[in-house]
Amino acid sequence: MKREIDYSLYLVTDRDLMSAPDLETAVERAVKGGCTLVQLREKTAGSREFFETAVRVKAVTDSYGVPLIINDRLDIALAADADGVHIGQDDLPADVARRLIGSGKILGVSASSLGEAEEAVCAGADYLGIGAMFATGTKTDADLATMDELRRIRRALSIPIVVIGGINQATAPSFRDIGIDGLAVVSAIIGAPDIEAASREMREVWDGFKR
Amino acid sequence: MKREIDYSLYLVTDRDLMSAPDLETAVERAVKGGCTLVQLREKTAGSREFFETAVRVKAVTDSYGVPLIINDRLDIALAADADGVHIGQDDLPADVARRLIGSGKILGVSASSLGEAEEAVCAGADYLGIGAMFATGTKTDADLATMDELRRIRRALSIPIVVIGGINQATAPSFRDIGIDGLAVVSAIIGAPDIEAASREMREVWDGFKR
User: Fold this and answer.
1) Under an 8 Å CB criterion, which residues of A touch B?
2) What is the 3-state secondary structure (H, E, C) of chain A?
3) Does the distance separating the beta carbons of B78 and A73 come in below 8 Å?
4) C-alpha distance from residue A136 to each of A35, A182, B103, B163 (Å)
C-alpha cells in the first residue's frame, strides 16, 4: 500500500559533498532536522555497494517513519524494498519503470518542461521533481527549468511537485507563491557543516510558506 | 518458461574492444559464426542508453533464437525482457537476484572458488561463470581461478559451467578434458577484425572437444 507522502523537505544525497562520516549519519541528522523524504543517489557505487548502502539507510529512514526513494536504479529499489524510485530523463522510461515497480511503490520523475511533466504524469508518476531551477554544481548536465515553466506546469497539473537544483535558504523564498508541494535540497543540507541545523533552517523556510 | 540453454560458445560484449560499427552488428556477426548465448555488458552506459541497447540487441538475438543475458543490471534485464541476468561477486547478492527475476529467467553467477560456486548454487544460479582463468585486459579487477579449483568445482557440482577470462584459440584447448559446458569469450571474438570468422574458429575449437 502506497502511503501519503509529505514532500515538504526532500533530501537528495550526494556522497561527494557530504560533511558527515557516512551516509546513514548524514541522513539521520537531516531527518532529525526536519527532512520528510530521502532520496539515495549513488552515481559511482557498484550494485552490491549501492544495495548494502540502501539497506543501511533504510534502517534509519524506517526508524523515523520517513520514506526512502532510490535514484535511477529500480533493481536496487526492489532489492532493498525501498518506498520508491526516482528517475530522470536519461534513466529508464517512466512507463517501463511503473510497470516494473508496480502500483505499490512511489515513482518520481524529473522534468524541466511542461511536455516532460505531462508525459511523466501519463506514464504514472506519483510526483515530479522540477528543475534544475538554478545552475548547480551537483548536477552539471541538468537541463534548466525557468520559473515561468514551473508556473505553467503547476497550473496545468495537479500532481505533487518539488523543485530541485540550487535550492537553498537564499533561493527557496522565490517559490513561496507558486503552490509547490516541497523543496528538494542537495548541497544546502548534505554539504552543510551542521546537517541537522541546515535541515531545520530549510524546514523553517518551508513552514514560513504556509503562514 | 525457462528454455534449455546451449552454453557452448558464450559471447560477452565489450564496447571498448569492439571492431564492429555498433553492438547489434557485432552480436549478429558473432551469432552467425556460432555463438549460442550472448551477454550484454555495459559498464559505463546510463540506464536509458543501456535499456535501448538491450532492446536493439535482443531483436537480433531473438531473430537467431539465441538467449540474451544482461550483465549486472536486473532492472535492465526486466525492462528489456531479456532471458536472464549475470551477476558477479560485487553485484546484487544471488539470492536477492533470484527473488527479483523469478524462476522464469536465467541466473548466471561469476565464481572463482568452490565456496563461491556452492553459495551461488544454493542461491538458485542456473549456471556458473568460472574465472578469470587467465589474467585479462578486459576485467583487470577479476579474481583468478586456478585450473585445480575449476576441477574441484566441476567434480563437486552438476550445474552448467562456462569458463571465462582470457579464453581464446590458444588457451581453450586446456579445458578439453574438464567437462565444462561452454567457453565464454570476450576479446577473442568481439575484438577480432573479423568477428564472424573468429566466432566460427572458436566454435570449431569447442566442437573439437566432443570428438
Assistant:
1) 46-49, 51, 72-76, 78-79, 87, 89-93, 96-97, 100
2) CCCCCCCCEEEECCHHHCCCCCHHHHHHHHHHHCCCEEEECCCCCCHHHHHHHHHHHHHHHHHCCCCEEEECCHHHHHHCCCCEEEECCCCCCHHHHHHHHCCCCEEEEEECCHHHHHHHHHHCCCEEEECCCCCCCCCCCCCCCCHHHHHHHHHHCCCCEEECCCCCCCCHHHHCCCCCCEEEECHHHHCCCCHHHHHHHHHHHHHHHCC
3) no
4) 21, 18, 44, 47
Q: Do B96 and A79 touch (CB under 8 A)?
A: yes
Q: Which of B8, B110, B187, B199 is catalytic?
A: B110
List of domains in chain A = 9-208 (3.20.20.70)
With a threshold of 0.90, tell me whether the complex ipTM lies above it: yes
Query: What's chain B's length in residues?
Result: 211
Buried b vs exposed e over B73-105: b needs ≥16 C-beta within 10 Å?
Answer: bbbbbbbbebbbbbbbbebbbbebbbebbeeeb
Asked whether A144 and A116 are in contact (CB, 8 A), the reply is no
Q: For residue B86, is pLDDT > 90?
A: yes
Does A163 score more than 60 pLDDT?
Answer: yes
- Residues A60-116 have pLDDT tens digits of 999 999 999 999 999 999 999 999 999 999 999 999 999 999 999 999 999 999 999
Tell me: the pLDDT tens digits for A29-50?
Answer: 999 999 999 999 998 999 999 9
Q: Give the 3-state DSSP-derived string for chain B, with helices as H, strands as E and coil as C.
A: CCCCCCCCEEEECCHHHCCCCCHHHHHHHHHHHCCCEEEECCCCCCHHHHHHHHHHHHHHHHHHCCCEEEECCHHHHHHCCCCEEEECCCCCCHHHHHHHHCCCCEEEEEECCHHHHHHHHHHCCCEEEECCCCCCCCCCCCCCCCHHHHHHHHHHCCCCEEECCCCCCCCHHHHCCCCCCEEEECHHHHCCCCHHHHHHHHHHHHHHHCC
Cβ within 8 Å, pair A79-B73:
no
The 10s digit of each residue's pLDDT in B123-132 is: 999 999 999 9
Residue with grid cell 508541494, as numbered in its chain: A181
pTM of the prediction? Answer: 0.94
Residue A142: its pLDDT value, please? 73
